[in-house]
Structures are given as structure tokens and as C-alpha cells.
Amino acid sequence: MKKFLVASGLIMTSFQLNKTAVFEAYTQKIPVTPVSFDMTPIPAGTFLMGSNDSDFPDQNPAHEVKVDGFWMGTHEVTWDAFELFLDKHYEQTMTEGGVEDRVDGLTRPSLPYLDMTFGMGKDGKPAVGMTQYGAIQYCYWLYLKTGIFYRLPTEAEWEYAARAGSLDRFFFGNDPSKLSDFAWTASNSGGTTHEVGKKKPNPWGLYDIYGNVQEWTIDLYEKDFYSRSDKDNPFNPAGKLYPHVVRGGGFKTPESEIGSAFRGVSDPSWKRIDPQIPKSQWWFPEAPFIGLRLVRPLNPPSPEQIMAYYTQEPIEDY
Description:
Elements (H helix, E strand, L loop, with lengths): L1 H6 L2 E3 L13 E4 L6 E7 L2 E5 L13 E5 L2 E4 L5 H8 L1 H7 L6 H4 L27 H15 L8 H9 L50 E7 L23 E4 L15 E3 L24 E2 L3 E3 L5 H8 L8
């Protein structure tokens, strides 16, 4: 088991011999590249999801939800990791021994026709502007590179991890004056993304879970979904292109719209200036505030279910 994990680029502090990874923090190295990222364990549990705030009816009603254990990215995915997937030629220059055929044949994003950093820079900063489909395909690329099933979080997983056991608006309480200690928002970001990990983490070791960039979830957004969602690992399948749920708020988000229960949505206006017909399945040229954070379930699905997740056909966007 240890030999396999090392070969796949998974560096852990300890191992078991029963083919089950020890459930603790680890660093994932992207094999034969200089790039790595950190994952932190989120224990299984039950929590109160949403709120009963009448000013935000899409958070109603607060309801009990059970979530299985998973790992979550300590930070948002940064450009150094995402650009390996984005640009095959860049990946080849950064990969010792070249890119394997099975990875080389992966469908990749079209190279954007404009600066997808929007002038904000890349060093240590979160990757931005990708569609949900693009985010899922990045996870697929990681799977081919590492043999590990990474995916986007469900909306329930995201909120559970953000709360870290708190019932309050924020994981640190209800005082918004403290938010600047933990998050880059419209009030302190200077209108740009920032290097990940420069603010304080939440109690479960997650940095920038509020602010910096909004983060994709798997779920379709429906205003009334909480009134009929399941208790166990709820998931609202995204059967149409818009709107999908994004969470956490970003560097352009007012503090009044940030909290563990706040639900953001994707919007077709994010592609308004895209001149292509159909519009790009990979990029939102007017969404410099959307990024992603990875999840790895403690108990992964079958290989067939994994491939079904990764190989969903994109929905054309006219």
C-alpha cells in the first residue's frame, strides 16, 4: 500500500496495510512535477444546515443533515496547480520524463483569448474563471495523474466544513467586525485576489473558506431545495446549466453577503462578452471571482461511478 501511495504521489504521515488510507492531513504531490497541495480531514457528523433568517429565504429552513467523512483542500486550487491542466505544453515542460499517454489524451480547456488572471497575477493566488465543467475536468486530470478520486464538494459538505461545528453565522461567531481576520472581501481586498493562506484558518484548518474567491459545489441551485432535501448526504443533481451553487463569497463580495449558510449562484451573464457560438464550455470571461476547492471522500465510489462523474457531457451554452 505504501509503495502504491508513493508512486501515485500521495505523501501521508502514516499508513495502514488494509488498503484504507489513514484519515489525517496529508500533502498530495502531483507526480513528477514540483507542485503539491494540502488536504485536511473533515470528520463525519451531523449538523444544522441553513438558517431560519427571513431575510434570506433560500437558507430556510434550518435542517439537520448527516455528512460522511472526507478530506478537503486546505486552500483553494492555485494557478500553479491549475495551469498544468490548462496548458499541455506547459505541463510537458514541468513534468519529468514527459506526460503519460493517458493524461496526454485528456480533453483540456481551450486556451483563453484573454488574460484569465484579469491582471491580478498568479503567484500563490487561486485559479479563477473556470466553469463548473472545467473544474470537474481538472479533477479528472488529477485522477489520471494520481489515481486518487478528487471532486467538487456538495453544498452540504461545503457548509459543514465551513462551520467546523459552529451554529453561528460565521465559524468564529456572529460578529462581522472580525471577518477581516479570516477573509478577503470587498472591504479589504483592494479589488483583487490574494495569495492563499494569508488569513487565519477555521478550526478545521481551512484557509480562505470565506472570501478570496467563490467556490464551486456540485449542486444545482433551487431556492426551495432545503424544504425537501434528504437528511443523509443531500445532493441536488445539476440537470441543467444554470444556476449552480457557489459558496463562500469572494474578494468582490460585501461582508453582508458572507457566512456559512450564504448561497451564491452561477449566472449566464458571466459569459456575456464571450463571442463564440456556442459559448465556451471552459471559461467565464466575466467571473474573476469564481474558483474551486477539492474534496476527496473517505469512502470513494466504484470505478464505474467515478468515470460517470468525470465523463458527463457538457451542456451547450448559447
